[in-house]
Design a protein that fits this description.
Blueprint (H helix, E strand, L loop, with lengths): L1 E6 L6 H11 L3 E5 L6 H11 L3 E5 L10 H11 L5 E5 L16 E3 L10 H40 L7
Parallel strand pairs: 1-2, 1-3, 3-4, 4-5
Length: 164
Amino acid sequence: MYKIGYIDDHPDQYENYRKKIKRRFPDIDLILFDGCKTKEEFLERIYKEQVDVMLIDYKMAGTFSFDGSTLINYINDQVRDLECFILTGVEQDKVADGLVAERNRYSKTIFDTEGDDEEKLKKFFDFINVLIESANVFRTRREQKKEEYKVLYEKRKKETLSLK
């Protein structure tokens, strides 16, 4: 099961997005991060939910004291390997603060798959595959770090851990 965190100050479409993903990808769970007010609370929720990847709305400054790309910058300072994506209703060129790479910015229209339009479906499937690939990379890196920690912990227990 893949866990995708979802942050939006106006999550009107959350349930719609969740259903669209679940219908075609039953092993993906879209988790709404509601009730959080600060960057620290969002970070705590990431740890609590143990998400593999994040989708974050860009225009949130009206509700919070930060926008989505600023939140991503903060999250990446704390959880370096967690890939975060901007999901926005504004024009892509309006997200020009330089904090999120263009490849990690998607329009909310990516979820417009009504009528089973082949081109729209392909874009949606490609988007979901990017999320899955990012989740797999995050999981692999997390396991690698866990193994490194275990080795260091064993050395500490045996009192063979040095500064080197």
